[in-house]
Design a protein that fits this description.
By secondary structure, the protein is an alpha+beta fold. It contains 8 helices and 13 strands. Strands 5-6-7-9-8 form a 5-stranded mixed barrel. A 4-stranded mixed beta sheet has the order 3-2-1-4. The structure holds zinc ion (2 copies). Residues 14, 16-17, 19, 48, 51 line the site of one zinc ion.
Amino acid sequence: MSFIEMAKSSRASCRICKLKIEKLTPRLGIKSSFEMRGRIVESLRWHHLECSFEKLGEEVANAEIQADLSAEDIKKIDRIKSKFLSSGLDAIGISDLTEHGVRKNVKATVLKQMRVREIETDSGKTTKARTVYVESDKIRRKIVLWSNQVEIELKPEDQLLIIRGLTELGSDDKILVNVDENAKILINPSDEQTKKITKAPKIFTSDQWKRPSGTHVKFEIAKTSRAKCFLCGDKILKSELKIVKPVWIENEMAKRHVPGSYSLHLKHALDDEDGAEVLKEAISRISHDIIDDFGSELIDLRDSTENSKIKKLLDEVLIN
Ligand SMILES: [Zn+2]
Ligand SMILES: [Zn+2]
């Protein structure tokens, strides 16, 4: 649990820069509890709010604000929130495009659509591409429609919602967006469609079980076939999608708990004692790559689960 307050004294030091935190300056407190030799130990760590912006974004985004902050700090916190309190699937707004090589949702207005071009790929094949000039927040950018998407006819002033477009740094040093076969484009979407897409699950961390601080449940692609599913005891095969749950593991010899995790088959995750929370946490942090590569497994899970909350969450991330 984290919170932001004005320092009540000048005694604490910042865990990031190691310098003193002056009284009445904003600071981020992170409370955590862990188990040591069978006892629950509480810890409270302090950080300059300024230092936290870069290093502790997720904690800042989730912090309870208990101070009267400057307008500038509030603005920074809002920006961090928009980045962390979503799974990245609702990163709409082309002007926010700073990263390349990632899949993002993008909203834009059509300025001009160019003719279909034949392009030779690295492997010597030809493919079709079509550039569209768009504008968003007064920034002019390019989107590129690929393969069968080139057929889409666009008119100036059309509103576009690109779902999971692949960003790329263009020759003009601006980020352009590729609409390939894994992306989808909605033309003049209804408010309802826009709302559905922007409503991606919030990042969620369950408090149903004790775990090492700062860890979270995640989807992972098994790198080997060595790990066994904690529930059924069978091997999880290499390249299979699994769920990793962080926990404290009891070390009999040393008689203490050590940080650890266990793996679960995707289909067995809901049978875990914290199953629904485990899956909810994993889905809230799912990456585009996992959605791209394991779409059919996730659809199977959605269709087979009887847990309506998990069904709904999966629906939200499996937009197309
Ligand atoms: Zn600091
Ligand atoms: Zn299993």
